[in-house]
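for the record, two folds in this file. i put them one after another cuz i was lazy. first one right below, seq on top, C-alpha cells after. the second one comes after a little note so u can tell where it starts
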Amino acid sequence: MNYAIGVDIGGTKVAVAAVDEQGTIICQSVIPTNLQIPPEAMIAEIQQEISRIIEKSGVLVDQLTGIGIGAPGPLDSRNGLISCPPNLQTWVDIPIRELIGRSFPVPILLENDANAAALAEKWIGAATENENFIYITVSTGIGAGIITEGQLLKGLKGNAGDIGHMVVDPSYGECVCGQSGCLESIASGTAIAKRASEILGEKLTAKEVFHLYQEGNPRIIEYMQEVFKVLGVAAVNMINTFDPEKLVIGGGVSEFGEPMFDSIRQYVQRYALNPTGRKTEIVSAKLGQQAGVIGAAALCFHIESFK
C-alpha cells in the first residue's frame, strides 16, 4: 500500500494528514496558522507536523508517494511558490515546495486549495460520476476548482477559479484586494462574522452567527438571506461561463445547510441563461472539511492526470 501526505494551508489553520491510495485518512492533525511569525517559521512548524504524522501513522519512507500541498492563491504551482494570498498577507513569493523538500526526499506538489478539494470530490466525493463540475469552497475565503472534460482547469500559474475576487456588488464596499464588492468580501466566513458583528453590535465568529441563525434570530436570518442571494449570483455566473453539470459547494459556510442550498437553487432556476443551466445540480461537498487535505494527497496519486 502506498501513502501520501496531504497539507491543507488556510488563513486560520493548517491540516496535515497521511492518506492511503483509496483516499482514506489514516492519521490527521490540525495546527493554527500563526500569522504573527515569518512565513518560513510557520513552514518550519508545518514540517515538524508532517514528521509527527509520518511517525504516528507508521508509514515508511519507501511507501510515501509524495507530499501534496493545497494553499490559497495567488500562487505559482509550476514553480512551487505561494505568491501573495490576501489571507496570508506576509506570504510573498514563498518557495514552499523547496522549503518543504529540504526535509523530505519525496516529490512535493503545490496546488491551489480549491483545486485540490475539487480533485478530492472527483476522486471519492460528490462528483465521482461527473466530467464537468465546479467545486466552490466558501470558508475563510472563497475559491473554485473547475473540472472540464475530466481535467482540472489550472490556467497559466494554477490560479484559475479564484472567484472570491469576482465583483458581484460594489455597494458592499472595499475588499482586501482593493476592488469593491468582491464575492469574498460579502459571503466568506470572515465577511459574515464582520458584518453580523456590526449588525448586532457585538463581536461574533462565523460559527456564532451560524448558531444565531439556527436559533431563529430575525436580524441574522434577514442578513443571511442577502448572503445566500449573493452566492446565487456567483453560482449563475459560474454556470453561464462554464456550463457545468454540477456545482459542489463546501467549506465552513456550507454548514448553513439546506436553507442556503435551496436559496442558491432557486436563484439559479430563475436566472441561469440556458434552460439546461437552470437545472444544474447543486449539492453539498461529500468530504466536508476533509476535502482540502484529501485533495492535496490526491495530487501525489494522480500526477499524470492533473499536471
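(here's the note) second protein begins now
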Amino acid sequence: MRLDESLVLNNGIKMPVLGLGVYKSGENTKQAVLDALEAGYRHIDVASVYGNENEVGQAIRESGIPREEIFVTTKLWNDDMRAGIQKEAFEKSLERLQMDYVDLYLLHWPVAEHYLPSWHILENLNREGRAKSIGVSNFQMGHLMDLMAHATVVPVVNQIECHPYLSQQPLCSFCRKTGIQVTAWAPLGRAKVFEDAVIKGLAEKYGQTPAQVILRWELQRGIIVIPKSVHRERIIENSKIFDFELVPEDMAVMDGLNKDQRFGPSPDTFDF
C-alpha cells in the first residue's frame, strides 16, 4: 500500500484510505491541511459544525493541487436536519469551501425522525452531481437497516468511532456485507490507548510508534482512517504506515483489545 492508496466505494468512486481529520483544529486548520497535502495526503475530512470549512477550502486552493485530486468530505449537521434546511446547509458548506461539489456528503448523526427525509435530499444532491458520493456517520445496524429499507441509494460510507478499545467488529462486518465502507473517526482513541502495554510492545517489535501500529491495524482491517492532528511532525508520522505490515497473530492480538469502550457519544443516546 502507498500513501495515495484508495479503496473503491460501492458507486465505483475511489476514496483514499488515509485522510486528515480537522475536528477541533480551530485556528490551526489551514496550516494542518497545507502540511498534510504537502506530505502527500489527498483526503480531508471536515464538517459544517466544526466551523472550519472556510480554512479547509483556503488551504486546498493555496496548495496548488488540482481540486479533482483531493477527496473532500463534509457533513450535514443535526440542527439543520431538524430545521428542514438540509439543502440550504449544503449550499452554505459549498460556499464556505468555495467548491462546486464535495466528494462525500454525510448525515452527521442518525437524528430520529429526520435522517430518512434528510437522506432523500442527499440522494437528490447526489443525482445532481454536487455530492459525488453520499453516506452516513455514527449509524448503528438498526439505523442502517431502516435507512436502506427506504433508500434508493445505498450509503457508500459509515463513519464511526473505531479504535482498539472499540473495534466495532459486528457493525464493520454488517457494513462489509452490505457494501458500505467503514471510516474510523478517533482511530487513535484520542491518544488514550497509546499507553496500552500490548500496543507499546507491538510498537517496539515493529520499530514504529503506537499511533502507526494502531493505524496499520485499522488499514489491514479494510477501514479508512482519518486521524486528526495539527502538528506537522505527527501528520507526517501518521502517514508512515505503508511500509510495514502486522502479521496475522499480531492482528489477532490487537483485535483482542476491544472493550466496547467509547470516548465519544453513543449513537443510541446522543442528545445534540
